[in-house]
Amino acid sequence: MIHGYLTDINNNSLFEQVSRTTRFLERFCGLLFSPRLKNNEALLIEPCSSVHTVGMRYAIDVIFIDKDWLVVKMTKSLKPWRMAASSKAYRVLELASDGLEQIDLSLGQQLKWHSHVE
């Protein structure tokens, strides 16, 4: 996985600790075997246009993002054993179930990825 953070286009921090998938197995498992995310954490899965919570023990918020890093759909509190999708999405950001309430984000808003320099 690659680690970094996401901002809006004005460089206002949105998510301080983002893990970005780089392998098929990371995309396939997603958060399945992970502890509940904290409010400043997220998992960025790409390429991806749909997610499921089959086998998970907690709900998540989901942000669907297109190839230009524009927010195309948001799903609040996706409960276990559910699915969400967007045909316009190229990547998906999974976050804590109250994560969308903590940030000011709207449809059409552009995001920006920043890698952590190690």
Element layout with pairings:
Layout: E1 2-8, E2 13-20, H1 24-29, E3 41-45, E4 50-52, E5 60-65, E6 71-78, E7 83-85, E8 91-96, H2 99-102, E9 111-115
Parallel strand pairs: 2-3
Antiparallel strand pairs: 1-2, 1-9, 3-8, 4-7, 5-6, 5-8
Low-confidence stretches: none
Output mean pLDDT: 91
User: Architecture in CATH?
Assistant: Sandwich
H/E element string? EEHEEEEEEHE
Structural class estimated from helices and strands: mainly beta
Protein architecture, described:
With 118 residues, this protein is mainly β. It has one domain (2-115): Jelly Rolls. It contains two helices and nine strands, in the order E-E-H-E-E-E-E-E-E-H-E. The strands form two sheets. The chain has a seven-stranded mixed sheet, with no helix packed on it. Strands 4-7 form a two-stranded antiparallel sheet. A hairpin with a 5-residue loop joins strand 5 (60-65) and strand 6 (71-78). The protein is globular and about 35 Å long.
